[in-house]
Specification:
globular, 1 helix, alpha+beta, about 80 residues, about 15% helix, eight-stranded mixed beta sheet
Length: about 80
């Protein structure tokens, strides 16, 4: 069952392994919901359904520099893979 997380919908978060993502506002036992973000390999991926979660603990809310990095990846991506 999905429940609201302590972070806001649309907030940019960074996991303990350095993955930056835009949070969908929900969490479950698997982790924090992800709209779009970088996976552990640095590949850009987008949500394909409810149940796409970042499975690493949240390290911090993204800084402006980290947000810029993710946004540039999104803007210049030729292809974005579904989770």
């Amino acid at each position: 069952m999905l429940k609201r997380s302590e972070f806001k919908r649309g907030e940019f978060l960074v996991t303990s392994n350095g993955s930056i993502f835009i949070h969908d506002g929900y969490k479950n036992g698997d982790g924090y919901g992800c709209l779009i973000g970088l996976d552990s390999n640095g590949e850009l991926r987008k949500q394909s359904d409810w149940g796409n979660f970042m499975r690493y603990p949240i390290d911090h809310i993204a800084s402006d520099k980290e947000i810029d990095r993710l946004m540039r990846k999104i803007m210049y991506a030729e292809h974005i893979t579904n989770y």
